[in-house]
């Protein structure tokens, strides 16, 4: 995919608010997308782009008469907060976008938050999962998930099913910390215990010494979080090479480790592994069957959509809903009133809504097991935690 890169360093953030003081009444709505298109961390960003692009293609006829959409794509190159912040400034001051979406990695989104506030620019977060993100600007809504939102149910499930002594291994950045905390809260809620924990580098990690430490301690279970993508396969292969399953250590995890797009690269290693998540390509919901059919038609029978793809799809659905309700003419504040009250029953992932108080998504969290369907690995949903809110927001609200 060719992505235009820009190296214009923009004007000071202090001037951004003036740019949007008088929103244009143009018939073209400009959507700025910042995501990761290049480098070793690119696969989730490319998947996100495929999802949002497919939605825009299939739903162009739903736009109000005379209104068109222009998607302006920018590559943040990976975990690069300064780059993401600069790109956001450029999209606002030079490209005059009406709304921004995307972003895979939380450090990038956190760096962008002050820019969104200063410019009163609506930002639909399509993956960045740090719980704190939506508290950093009133102009952010999240259509993805938070790690506590999906890891706490995993902890509860593990404790209830006998895997009540766990060791946690997570990537050392905000989503990893949230995953660690959420799992600990969940497992302790049902009488379990975290007997040890370790955090691993996000960039270029060697997982072997960390998993060897777990093997030596022999806990009943091991909870892992790494960013969804190539590191998922790397971690699963290390788990297999060290024979942790044969050592009696049961792996439980989030959807990031068993992201659908990486399963074909894992051989049979993850068979039987249980995870928690917001989406599975194997789900039998009619909306998901239709989505997967459309995906395969567009991208090929062997291309597997994953949760980042569906977040791109749903994020664009939210933006299109905004355009339809406003005729494509909106200020940042007008956009946020609509986006923060969005709800749907038609997503491939199932029903979800945006919490108007926090800007965070409320959605089903599914417990899934890796099985073979027609000879291919798939995350098969078998239990549902219905309409889960972000626990981090609830706990911090209670503490105030």
Explained architecture:
The protein is α/β, with parallel strands linked by helices and 400 residues long. It has 2 domains: 22-145 and 286-359, Rossmann fold; 147-277 and 364-399, Rossmann fold, CATH 3.40.50. It has 12 helices and 14 strands. The chain has helices at residues 16-19, 43-58, 81-93, 106-119, 147-160, 174-189, 208-217, 230-241, 286-299, 307-326, 332-339, 391-399, and strands spanning 28-35, 68-75, 99-102, 123-125, 140-142, 165-171, 193-200, 221-225, 250-254, 274-277, 343-344, 352-354, 361-373, 376-388. The strands form 2 sheets. Strands 6, 7, 8, 9, 10, 11, 12, 13 and 14 form a 9-stranded mixed beta sheet that branches. Helix 2 runs parallel beside helix 10 and helix 3 runs parallel beside helix 4 (106-119).
The CATH architecture of the largest domain would be 3-Layer(aba) Sandwich
* Subunit arrangement of the protein: single chain
Regions with little confidence, pLDDT below 50 for 5+ residues: 1-26
Distance between the termini: 47 Å
User: What's the pLDDT, averaged over the residues?
Assistant: 92
The total of helices stands at 12
Helix content: 25-40%
At the first level of CATH, what is the class of the largest domain? Answer: Alpha Beta
Radius of gyration: 21 Å
Series of H and E elements: HEHEHEHEEHEHEHEHEEHHHEEEEH
Q: Major sheet: size, sense and barrel closure?
A: 9 strands, mixed
* Strand-pairing-aware structural class: alpha/beta
- Report the sheet-strand fraction: 15-25%
Could you give the count of β-strands?
Answer: 14
Basic shape: globular
CATH superfamily of the largest domain: Response regulator
Do you know the CATH topology of the largest domain? Rossmann fold
């Amino acid at each position: 995919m060719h992505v235009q890169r820009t190296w214009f360093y923009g004007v000071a953030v202090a001037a951004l608010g003036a740019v949007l003081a008088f929103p244009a009444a143009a018939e073209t709505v400009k959507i700025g997308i910042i995501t990761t298109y290049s480098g070793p961390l690119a696969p989730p960003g490319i998947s996100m782009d495929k999802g949002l692009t497919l939605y825009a293609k299939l739903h162009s006829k739903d736009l109000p008469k005379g209104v068109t959409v222009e998607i302006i794509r920018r590559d943040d190159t990976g975990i690069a907060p300064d780059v993401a912040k600069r790109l956001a400034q450029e999209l606002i001051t030079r490209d005059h976008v009406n709304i921004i979406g995307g972003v895979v990695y939380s450090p990038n989104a956190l760096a962008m938050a002050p820019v969104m506030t200063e410019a009163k620019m609506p930002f639909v977060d399509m993956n960045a999962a740090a719980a704190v993100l939506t508290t950093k600007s009133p102009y952010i809504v999240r259509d993805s998930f938070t790690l506590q939102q999906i890891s706490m149910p995993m902890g509860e499930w593990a404790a209830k099913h006998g895997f009540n002594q766990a060791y946690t291994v997570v990537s050392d950045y905000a989503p990893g910390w949230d995953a660690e905390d959420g799992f600990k809260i969940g497992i302790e809620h049902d009488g379990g215990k975290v007997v040890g924990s370790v955090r691993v580098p996000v960039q270029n990690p060697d997982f072997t010494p960390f998993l060897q430490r777990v093997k030596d301690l022999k806990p009943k279970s091991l909870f892992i979080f790494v960013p969804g993508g190539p590191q998922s396969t790397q971690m699963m292969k290390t788990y297999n090479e060290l024979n942790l399953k044969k050592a009696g250590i049961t792996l439980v995890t989030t959807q990031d480790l068993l992201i659908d797009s990486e399963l074909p690269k894992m051989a049979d290693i993850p068979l039987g592994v249980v995870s928690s998540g917001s989406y599975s390509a194997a789900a039998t919901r009619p909306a998901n069957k239709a989505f997967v059919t459309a995906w395969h038609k567009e991208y090929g029978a062997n291309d597997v959509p994953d949760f980042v793809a569906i977040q791109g799809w749903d994020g664009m659905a939210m933006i299109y809903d905004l355009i339809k309700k406003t005729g494509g003419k909106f200020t940042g504040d007008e956009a946020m009133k609509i986006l923060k009250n969005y709800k749907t029953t038609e997503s491939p992932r199932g029903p979800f809504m945006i919490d108007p108080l926090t800007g965070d998504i409320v959605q089903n969290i599914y417990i899934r097991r890796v099985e073979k369907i027609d000879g291919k690995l798939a995350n098969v949903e078998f239990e549902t935690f219905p309409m889960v809110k972000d626990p981090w927001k609830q706990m911090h609200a209670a503490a105030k």
